Amino acid sequence: MLIRVSEIPDEGVRVDSPDLPGVFPEAGWTLDRIGLLIERQGQEVVVVGSFEATARLDCSRCLEPLVTRVAPAVDVHLLPSPRARHEEVELGRDELEVDFYQGDTLDVDGLLRGEVHLALPMKPLCRAECRGLCPVCGGNRNLKPCACAARSVDPRLAPLEALRRPR
Asked: 9, exposed or middle or buried, with CB in 10 Å at 0-12, 13-18, 19+?
């Protein structure tokens, strides 16, 4: 969904229909609920609200598929891109919630994708006690216990083993 910044009315634009096609190009990702208010304050655009999305990921330990739901709150301030004005802009600590829009167009789909990616876990797990894959045979340890013998440490890497042990 593209919104022309110059056409945002004084009362703002409400986006509350989750039927936005093309928000997520990934198969199985859906936008379940959305409630955003987009307001223009001079050249600055403020987007506030929240939404819910479902993402299909793979467990980082066992590689089994899992479904993750996220519901981030949105409070973003957007300014015209400094590249369009041929200026360099240095952001301060209080401006970390600032993003940029290109030309006169605000890409709501891109904003939602960015917020979902920030809300996703860095290391998604199917469950907290996931046992992962066997490093020898590659079997899923959650499905059956693995009887593979542990591999010995490569002698070239043995000095690094001392760094792993707590002191």
From this structure: exposed
